[in-house]
Structures are given as structure tokens and as C-alpha cells.
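User: C-alpha cells for Arginine biosynthesis bifunctional protein ArgJ, please.
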Amino acid sequence: MTVAVTPTTQVDRSAGVTAPAGFRAAGVIAGIKPAGTPDLTVVVNDGPHDVAAGVFTTNKVKAAPVLWSQQVLTAGALKAVVLNSGGANACTGPEGFQDTHKTAEKLAAVLGVGAAQIGVCSTGLIGERLPMDELLPGVDAAVAALGDDAAAGLAAATAVMTTDNVPKQAALTHPDGWSIGGFAKGAGMCAPNMATMLSVITTDAVLDQPHLDHALRNAVGKTFNRLDVDGGTSTNDTVLLLSSGASGITVTPEEFEAALTALAADLVKQLQADAEGVTKHVSITVQGAASEAEALAAAKIVAEDNLCKTAFFASDPNWGRIAMAVGNAPTAFDPALLDITLNGAAICVAGGKGVDRSEADLSGLEIDVVIDLHAGPASATVLTTDLSHAYVEENSAYSS
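Assistant: Done. Predicted C-alpha cells:
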């Protein structure tokens, strides 16, 4: 997931979606959440361009806002996005889709654009209708609060949070003078099979829609799709990329994809660090696979295995659990050649016991797992977390 960028393009976490020229944002309290915390975000593209791309959940059960945003993005353009936390608007039937449509129409009317130019995202509890009496006036409040400064960008990143503890945003400016910025949210039900739960990324670079779409899909595959907290691909997963072209600088697809991938990789590290109940940041690399797809499949099997995750929580170098998990992956290898290294200690060598377990120190925050299959030239890395008491407690009480 590491992406080489020059020192002048290092990611800045003090900025987000308002860092690129041509964008305004806001995050307000609409009253959707009973706790009275920020719960409605609006991001507006003031142009001159309104090019956009999106990637969405592959879950068969798709929330109403996912269906809406997929539909409007067939035109490859968006003027604005409205996002709410406090309710997923998933499994809510035709009425839920009508609520999404009304939300888009409301923002469109306030901005003086068409509803088909508005993206909609929601996150929260599945199966409940949104409180439209609070949400629609909240759109007015959010538009009134729109700003193009760093505070506005942070407010936008904050209002999409559900079980997140901190907002997650990042931005970078290319030496040529164009910028890219974004925010993301997600702490649980996080095994993105497209993107993460919700993310909006903005840029003032000039790029046509096909190249924008191509860059987004490639970046997502290398970053968001390599995070696996708990194996749950959400019904609402959405990542939207909007280009204002306000810098006036035309960029090459290669330059843009590199910057986008660097930005997305940083957002993913923030998501991993704030996952529900996290006490360990775990990196699982499978190397020596016949193909990248096989390496990725094996890494995901380990990332999602509860026995492995509880061992990580306990700082227990129980490599047998990792070997068991890899053996269940749809990946071809000879078990007699399997090597497993934990934080630099070769604890399993040639399918059997390596150095003493005591040499694998997992007591710190970071755990680095390297699995060598000796079956080919390909590799892949997946980021995950441990399975802690706090994760179980938080998710056992999520809807109560």
C-alpha cells in the first residue's frame, strides 16, 4: 500500500475536501442522531467542471442512497453530495428510495441545480427510515454554513461519523499546483469490497471522466479494498470523486492516480487506527503466491479469521492459527514450504516450527505478519485489527 511521493506532496491531515480550489463544505447538527451530535454533511463543487466518478458496495443488499448515486453517476457528473450519519436508509423499501430522492431534490432546489446532479450517502443503523422532518431542514442549515476553509472541511468529515472516535481527512498539493483532498468514515462492518463505508474525495485538477473513473477504481483496489476490519462489506459502501478543474491544470492520468492512491492509502491507515475496539494494527503480507489474486485471498482469510484476531489481541504468537487460516484459502501452495514471520521472527519455517515463540514480540501496537508460500512471484498486503473485548461489547449494543 506504500506509494512513493515527493516531499512536496506529503499528505496533510489538517486539511480535507476543501483543500482543492472550487469546493465548499459543511457539517451540521440536523437532529438525525438522538445524541444531538453532527450528522449531516454537504460538499459542493463550484466548478468550473463537475466531473465525477464513484465506486460502490458489491453487497447484493444495497441501501437506497447507493442505488440513487449509482443511477445519477451514469452521467459522470455531480454538483454536490449530501451525506447523513445516524441512519443507513438500507432495507427500507420504496419509501426509503423516495426519502433519498427527496433529499437530493431538497439540496438541488437550494443550490439551483437538478436533482440528477446530486449524490446522496447515508450511514448508520440498517432497517429504519430516516427522520425526514429533521433531515430536510438540516440541508438548509448545511448550505447556510458552507465554507471553503479548513474548518469547514473538518466539520464535513466530523458529521459523517458513527462509531468513529475521530474524523479522518487528508489532502496533498502537487508541485505543479493542483490539489486533492478527502475524508472517510468507517470503524466497523468494514471489509470494503469497493471502497470504505463512506468517502468523498475532491480535486481541482483537470481530468476527463473516463480517466477519473479509471484512476479511482485502480486506487480503490490498492487501498480501500486492502482494509479488512471484520469481514463485513456494508450495504452503504460508497466512495465519490469530484473534480472542479478550478486549478486550470491538466494532469496526466499517471500523475493523478499516484496522488489519489497516496491520499487513499493515508485515509485507510486512519480507518485502521480508529477501528472499533482496536488495540493492534495488523499488517498481513502474503508473498510468493502464484498470482496477486491468490495472495490477496490468502491475506484476507487470515485477516478475517477470529482465532487469528483473538491471538493478535492477546499478543500471542500462535502461528499455528495463521497456518490453519492460510490452508483454508483458495490459494495453491505446498504446505511443506510455508514460512511465517511475526514482527521479524521466523516463527514457522518450511511448514514447521522455526525460532522459539518468545522471539516474536507482539506486545506493541503494530503487528507485522509475513507469509511466504514459495509458489510464485506475486504478493499482496491487507490491513486489519485484532478482535478485542471492546469490539464485541460495542457491536453487541449497537442498536440498543
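User: Anything notable?

Assistant: DSSP finds ten helices and 15 strands in the chain.
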